[in-house]
Design a protein that fits this description.
The chain crosses the membrane at residues 236-254. Its cofactor is heme c. It is found in: Membrane. Heme c binds at residues 68, 71-72, 192. The chain is mainly alpha-helical. It has two domains: 1-33 and 231-263, no CATH class; 35-73 and 144-228, Cytochrome Bc1 Complex, Chain D, domain 2 (Orthogonal Bundle). It is built from seven helices and four strands. The strands form two sheets. It has a two-stranded antiparallel ribbon with strand order 1-2. The protein has a two-stranded antiparallel ribbon with strand order 3-4. A hairpin with a 5-residue loop joins strand 1 (100-105) and strand 2. The protein starts with a helix and ends in a 5-residue tail after the last helix.
Length: 263
């Protein structure tokens, strides 16, 4: 029994070491292959002990609703998911009722809409892809539900794009009207207009609504939508490490006790 416990403990420790090594290697590969240099920012949710600043997540949701939701959807999120960023069901219900959900046809065969409820998915700003393409230069704006986990650099990249709008250099010519120069976007030309303006949203907690603050908050929100269970995963991971360490120490003590009289 002692031998089996010892082997299982060593296997668990070995598995954790392998997982950590793969994670570090994957991060290093992303950094090494990143063709677009952009600033690195400090985030409360980075690292094994990271966690989300839920006040920032809530502010970021306000920025998203004000500056992004008219073009970009979060279709893989339900209103009820917003509970995980610290809102109550009553608060969420009030937010949901401001949106309309397509609910079949009425007696005349016309589209019937109803106020959204907490169990509904957050609707797209467009009725369908054709409508989205028709008002966005032939392209469908990105869904932001899981966007932060699909790009290299994740939060750093999103933050850099939001703050990267500037006047184009004299020797740089945009390919067509309707494009904007961005220092960090691949090719430096982006169809999305600068989404943030100073004072563009009012924070209820009194936080100053600079462009930088709005960018930080909405980036935190988008990272949260991509990793809504990050805090729980970190908690489980830390508990697992504590358990493995406890088993390792217990095994060592028992081994010393059992073999203490053997010479």
């Amino acid at each position: 029994m002692m031998e089996i416990t010892r082997k299982l403990t060593f296997k668990a420790i070995g598995l954790l070491i392998v997982m950590f090594s793969l994670n570090v290697a994957g991060y290093a590969e992303r950094v090494a292959t990143d063709k677009n240099s952009y600033p690195k920012y400090p985030w409360s949710f980075s690292g094994i002990f990271g966690s989300y600043d839920l006040s920032s997540v809530q502010r970021g949701y306000l920025v998203y609703r004000k500056s992004c939701a008219s073009c970009h959807s979060t279709e893989y999120m339900r209103y009820a998911d917003l509970q995980q960023m610290g809102l109550t069901l009553d608060q969420i219900d009030k937010m949901a009722k401001t949106d309309q959900i397509l609910d079949g046809k009425d007696a005349q065969g016309k589209d019937h809409y109803r106020p959204a409820t907490v169990v509904d998915y957050i609707p797209s700003p467009y009725a369908n892809k054709l409508v989205a393409q028709s008002v966005n230069m032939g392209k469908v704006p990105l869904d932001l539900s899981r966007y932060a986990m699909t790009v290299d650099g994740q939060a750093d990249y999103i933050m850099a794009i939001l703050l990267g709008y500037t006047k184009s250099p004299v020797d740089f010519k945009l390919d067509q009207d309707g494009l904007y120069y961005n220092r960090y976007f691949p090719g430096h030309q982006i169809a999305m207009r600068p989404p943030l303006v100073k004072g563009g949203v009012q924070y209820t907690d009194g936080t100053n609504t600079t462009i930088e603050q709005q960018a930080k908050d909405v980036t935190t929100f988008l990272s949260w939508t991509a990793h809504p269970h990050l805090i729980e995963r970190h908690r489980i991971g830390i508990m697992a490490l504590i358990y493995v360490a406890f088993i390792a120490v217990l095994t060592f003590i028992i081994k010393r006790k059992v073999w203490s009289n053997v010479k």
